[in-house]
Amino acid sequence: MDIRQIDPHDDATFTDWYAALRSGLVAGRTAPIVFAREEVSASLRSPSPTKKRLPFAGFHDGRIVAGMILDLPQAENLDLVEWTLAVPPEHRGHGHGAAMFAEGLAHARRLGRTVHNSEVDVPAGQALEDSPGSRFALAHGFASLHTEDRLVLDLPLGDGELERLRVHSAVAHDDYELITWVGACPDELIDGYAEMRTIMGHEVPTGEIEHEVIVWDVERLRTGERRLAAQGFASITTVARHTSGRFAGYSLMFAGEHSPEGVYQDDTLVLDGDRGHRLGAALKVRNLEELAARFPERRHVHTWNAESNDAMQHINADFGFRAVETMHEFELRDEG
C-alpha cells in the first residue's frame, strides 16, 4: 500500500479521502456523528496556530482504502499526537489499518512525539472487545484510560417540556444573571469568559489521562471564533454572572451549517462555590431556548458525560438525554 500525506486543496483527492475516512468512522456505530466534509476541509486548509493537522491517505490499486489525521498541538502538550484512523468495512482485513498506524507512528517519532491519544466510540451495551476500533487500539498497545457516555437529546422537546425545565432550574439562583450570545463573545465579557474556559480544563474529568491544561486568552479565543465561523459553526454561549460581577459558570454549544440536523453540546461548568443553585441546568435551558429560536430545524443535541460527573448525569437525565455510545479515550506511551 502507498501511504502519503494529501493536499487538502486537491478537491478530487480530498473528496475520495474524506469519503473513505467517514465510511470507516461511522461503520457499526449508533447515531454516529462525524464532522462534515466542509468542516474538515476548512480546518485543514486554514491551519490553526495552536494545532497542526496532517491528513494521510492509504492507496491500493489506485484507490483510497484508508484515511488518517494526525493532530499535533503547537502550544501545550508538545509530546502529544491525537489520532483519527479509519478503514471502510469493505477494505478491512488486509492490513491497511496496521500499515497506516506504522506510518503514523514513524512520522510521530521523527517529530519527537511520544504520547498518542485516540477516541473510539462503542455502541452502548457492546463489550470493548466486540468493537473493531477498540480491538485495533488494544492490539497496537493502546489502553482505555477514560470513558464518557455519549448522549443524544431528540428535538423538538415535547409540549411544555422546555418550560418545565426552565421553571425547575430557576428556583434557586436569584443572585445570578444569565447572559447569552450567539457567535463572538462580547468584548466586555471576554476576559472573564477566557478565564472560565481555562478553569474548565482543570475541572473536566479525564480519568487517567494526564495533559497540560489549555490556557485561554483573548487572542486564542478570537482566533478560535474566526476558525469556527469559517468552518460554518455558530456557537451559542450562556454565562452565569453573580451580582458581585464575577463569573460563576457557562455552557457552550455549536450548530454547524453543514450538519443541519445536529448540535454539539460542549462545555458546561459551574464553579465549586456556586454549585447547589441549579445553575448547570439553568445554563443548558437558556441555550436550548436560544437554539429553538435561532435553529428550529435541529433534531438532535449530542453531548458527552463522564460517569464520575454525577451532577451532570442527573441534569442530562432530567432533560431527556439518552445514552447511545461509550466514548473510550485510548492512550499509548511510545517507548521507541
What does this structure look like?
This protein is α+β, with helices and mostly antiparallel strands and 336 residues long. It folds into 2 domains: 2-113, Aminopeptidase, CATH 3.40.630; 153-326, Gcn5-related N-acetyltransferase (GNAT) (Aminopeptidase, 3-Layer(aba) Sandwich). Helix content is 33%, strand content 32%. The chain has helices spanning 11-26, 37-45, 96-110, 132-139, 161-169, 190-203, 218-230, 279-294, 310-319; strands at 2-5, 51-60, 63-73, 80-86, 115-123, 143-154, 176-182, 233-242, 247-256, 262-270, 300-306, 322-333. A 12-stranded mixed sheet has the order 1-2-3-4-5-12-6-11-10-9-8-7, with helices on both faces. Strand 10, helix 8 and strand 11 (300-306) form a beta-alpha-beta unit. Helix 5 packs antiparallel against helix 8 (279-294). The protein is globular, with a radius of gyration of 21 Å. Keywords: Transferase. GO terms for molecular function: acyltransferase activity, transferring groups other than amino-acyl groups.
